[in-house]
Design goal:
Nucleotidyltransferase, domain 5; alpha/beta; binds zinc ion
């Protein structure tokens, strides 16, 4: 795995003069003062910081000519906080690399950049909030650009509990778009989450796995649905492996309905191989080949209601995947 780490730097001599007053409007504290002209008031304000290289920097103080109040302007990589942006970024990256909040704080202490566990926690939360905002801004810029939207679920462990993560991707580029923690994989929760995203992106096709509930989601959103080929291939291969192993090791007697069609166990194994080749290879005549096989086996009696259900779903999914 290649990791690229880019941390913000502290540049003590780089102080950008202000362009807007950062203070609240004295007449309306909910708004910011709209002053844009300033006078340097003090240029040697000492500011102690926690950083990997610097113990202290110099800030400038400016007076806003509109509200007549003063405020500090810090060098690049420094803010009002006691810690520099470098140290904030380092603590967040340590957490992302797998250390706990306490683990990151202990390592920084060992490196002689002490930060409290609670400070590491606040840094990670602030970075996460900022990342979400940036992702939302980027997602809005994708409006009208994603016609084929993919929806899939995965499971992750959070605090020892399995959580469901829904992931939306731009199928044609393979680019991940966004994700969300959902209460369940039900059509209700999936639709509620994906509806706004699909509308904003201008999606026309929803690509999902072969769960029937997601077909309903696509219908409810007025989108065409395509079954994800990776899911189709995997599910059909798993089913063929189970049926093939059973036929080889403990072949059941061939039902008379299939004997009448001239089907033997060897023929069944050969047909399984044919289905696998059709699903994985997608030949131009795959659809009629599948239909012919379905006709040959249509009178096969179900032996297990659950097995029957699984077969119907898989064959249905395979057929839809080929369309
Ligand atoms: Zn002002």
């Amino acid at each position: 795995m290649h990791l690229s780490v880019c941390l913000p730097k502290v540049e003590p001599l780089h102080i950008e003069p202000p362009t807007h007053c950062p203070l609240p409007d004295p007449k309306n504290p909910k708004r910011k003062c709209n002053g844009t002209h300033f006078k340097e008031h003090q240029c040697n304000c000492r500011k102690p910081i926690r950083d990997t290289r610097h113990h202290q920097v110099t800030a400038h103080r400016y007076r806003c000519l509109k509200c007549q109040r003063t405020f500090r302007v810090y060098p690049a990589g420094v803010s009002r906080d006691q810690q520099s942006d470098t140290l904030k970024g380092l603590s967040v990256r340590l957490y992302i690399l797998g250390l706990s909040y306490q683990g990151a704080a202990d390592l920084l202490e060992t490196l002689q950049y002490p930060l409290a566990k609670s400070t590491v926690y606040k840094n990670v939360q602030a970075a996460g909030y900022h990342a979400i905002q940036l992702r939302e801004q980027w997602l809005k810029q994708q409006a009208g650009k994603v016609k084929v939207l993919g929806l899939d679920f995965t499971h992750v462990k959070c605090q020892g509990q399995s959580r469901i993560v829904a992931v939306a991707t731009a199928v044609l580029t393979g680019q991940p778009l966004t994700f969300e923690l959902l209460d369940s994989e039900s059509a209700f929760h999936a639709e509620r989450w994906i509806r706004g995203i699909a509308k904003m992106l201008g999606a026309e096709v929803l690509v999902t796995d072969d769960a029937d509930g997601l077909k309903n989601v696509a219908e409810a959103l007025g989108l065409d649905q395509q079954i994800c080929r990776a899911h189709v291939n995997r599910n059909v291969e798993d089913l063929i492996a189970v049926l093939g192993t059973q036929a080889l090791e403990h072949p059941p007697p061939v039902p008379w309905e299939l004997q009448a069609e001239g089907i033997t166990v060897d023929q069944f194994l050969e047909d399984l191989s044919t289905v696998e080749n059709i699903i994985c290879g997608v030949p131009f005549d795959g659809q009629p080949q599948l239909e012919q096989l379905a006709t040959q086996y249509q009178y096969a009696p179900p032996t297990d209601p659950r097995a029957q259900g699984n077969h119907v779903v898989s064959v249905s999914a395979a057929g839809r995947g080929l369309v």
